[in-house]
């Protein structure tokens, strides 16, 4: 073996060993497991972003939304965050659309619905915490940057969803900082 070949093999071996150590020590920028919501279901779809909606009603939950949209294939959302009326305040309900890897109205976006009329009132504190936790986990799991989390009204002009009491820009700023801490 020539000296050049020996050095090349040594360099490649060292590079591979360092890559193995990095992945083994979980030094990825987006850790990928959390026990609360089953995000590790086998999804083939590459999600490009997360769109936030509100139900526009003061009462509700996934069951009510599913029933209201039954003729259109069920709730158009992947997750619904309860406000304490039909489901516990801050409870994150995983819709069948998520488990079945089906798109909602927006084929490239994971869609989250906050139960409530955010045009008239703010989310509850538990809803806010649940939304932040869900966004953080989904962004890590699916490697979605904070810049791709938006309110429906930001993508569809003339629509006031989720409502004036939802701060999309502030949510992105918080999420960017939270993702950067890991």
Describe the protein's architecture and organization:
- With 182 residues, this protein is of the alpha/beta class.
- It folds into 2 domains: 28 residues; 137 residues, Lysozyme-like, CATH 3.40.80.10.
- The protein has 6 helices and 5 strands; from the N terminus they run H-E-H-E-E-H-E-H-E-H-H.
- A 5-stranded mixed β-sheet has the order 3-2-4-1-5.
- Helix 4 packs across helix 6.
- The longest helix has 22 residues.
- 29% of the residues are buried.
- Computed structural class: alpha/beta
**CATH fold name of the largest domain, please?**
Lysozyme-like
- According to DSSP, the number of beta strands is 5
CATH superfamily of the largest domain: Peptidoglycan recognition protein-like
Q: Number of helical runs?
A: 6
* SSE string: HEHEEHEHEHH
Tell me about the largest β-sheet: 5 strands, mixed
Helix content: 25-40%
Overall body shape: elongated
End-to-end Cα distance: 45 Å
Sheet-strand content, in percent, reads: 5-15%
Spatial ordering of strands, largest sheet: 3-2-4-1-5
What's the gyration radius in Å? 20 Å
Arithmetic mean of pLDDT: 82
Q: Regarding CATH, which class of the largest domain?
A: Alpha Beta
CATH structural architecture of the largest domain = 3-Layer(aba) Sandwich
Please tell me the total number of domains. 2
Q: Stretches where pLDDT falls below 50 for ≥5 residues?
A: 18-37
Condensed summary:
Helices cover 37% and strands 12% of the residues. With 182 residues, the protein is of the alpha/beta class.
Key features of this structure:
2 domains, 182 residues, alpha/beta, elongated, Lysozyme-like
């Amino acid at each position: 073996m020539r000296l050049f070949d020996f050095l090349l093999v040594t360099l490649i071996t060292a590079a591979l060993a360092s890559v193995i150590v990095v992945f083994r020590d979980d030094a990825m920028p987006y850790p990928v497991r959390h026990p609360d919501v089953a995000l590790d279901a086998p999804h083939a779809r590459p999600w490009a972003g997360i769109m936030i909606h509100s139900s526009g009603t003061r009462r509700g939950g996934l069951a009510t939304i599913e029933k209201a949209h039954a003729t259109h294939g069920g709730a158009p959302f992947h997750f619904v965050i309860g406000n304490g009326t039909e489901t516990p305040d801050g409870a994150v309900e995983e819709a069948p659309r998520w488990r079945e890897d089906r798109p909602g109205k927006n084929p490239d976006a994971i869609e989250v619905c906050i139960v409530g009329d955010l045009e008239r009132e703010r989310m509850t504190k538990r809803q806010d915490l649940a939304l932040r936790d869900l966004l953080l986990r989904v962004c890590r799991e699916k490697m979605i940057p904070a810049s791709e989390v938006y309110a429906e009204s930001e993508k569809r002009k003339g629509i006031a969803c989720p409502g004036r009491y939802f701060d999309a820009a502030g949510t992105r700023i918080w999420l960017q900082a939270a993702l950067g801490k890991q």
